[in-house]
User: Fold alcohol dehydrogenase from Herbiconiux sp. A18JL235.
Amino acid sequence: MKALQYRAIGAPPEVVEVDTPEPGPGEVRLRVTAAGLCHSDWFLMGLPADQYVYGLPLTLGHEAAGVVDKLGPGATGVALGDSVAVYGPWGCGRCRACAQGREDYCPNAAGLGIAPPGLGAPGAMAEYMIVDDPRHLVRLDGLDPVDCVSLTDAGLTPYHAIRSSSDKLWPGSTAVVIGVGGLGHVAVQILRATTAATIVAVDLDDDKLALATEVGAHHTVRSDSHAALRIRELTDGIGAEVVFDFVGAEATLQIAKEVVALDGDVQIVGIGGATLPTGFFSTPFGASVRAPYWGSRSELLEVLDLARSGAVRVHVERFGLADAPEAYRRLHDGDIRGRAVVVP
Assistant:
């Protein structure tokens, strides 16, 4: 079968021929129907050799949807032909966090060598993929896999962050969304669908700011040296109860620090590599800084329900598997409006 792999440190990914995988005991093989691209793929491909821990060659793709194609011995709970999405942050399945469906915070996964698809395990940028356990599959029940595959990360991750700050997103509150790309434009829709907050979208790109308005942002602000002042003016000097930074760079975290309100939240979702010190002489009194990771299995069900209701829709650009390297180049250059999806 064909697969898109990262094969050498610093080299671009390439489409290669590999053996079609066979499911082992308890495993499920999917015929991949859609695979989403993500900036975190570029993050790991940009790591130097002494920091890269994901194994080579690595089949990319941690946003996955497919049709159940073959069951390994003992695999139950799904049937051949089921159209499913893949819950990506795989855990041990036995600890307290996993028992709650919060496998994104499993404390045992790394020690047991359990890795998400595309982030250690072979991913979805291929004609077929292996899922380690049927519990990591969610039926799509009529949803188009291409339109919704990105919700497994680009929807689940912002949803998880928003849910964890929901007590501060009351009527009259302000939520700032910094970076209105693949995750940010979905975050705006989730905020509109699940909260009464006023939404301020921040970005450098005018086209992405236009997209933010299209999907429900109340205000847009260009991400420049005056951004913090504009947001303070929009909030009558109070600041934002919650700031969601989907970039995570020094400049964007500085904006977050300057606009978060007293007792507010800063959610650092983007992996731009910057950090935000917090304390009495850094962030406002009572403000908390959090780095959320992915989301729970039950939250993925809720995100897909939002999609079924029409409240959330990912703006998708489709690519064939042969064009996936070009799609990654455009993603790296910021030339994707919404989310790029590979259809093998």
User: Anything to note?
Assistant: The chain has a mean pLDDT of 96. The first helix runs from residue 39 to 45. The longest strand covers residues 28-36. DSSP finds ten helices and 16 strands in the chain.
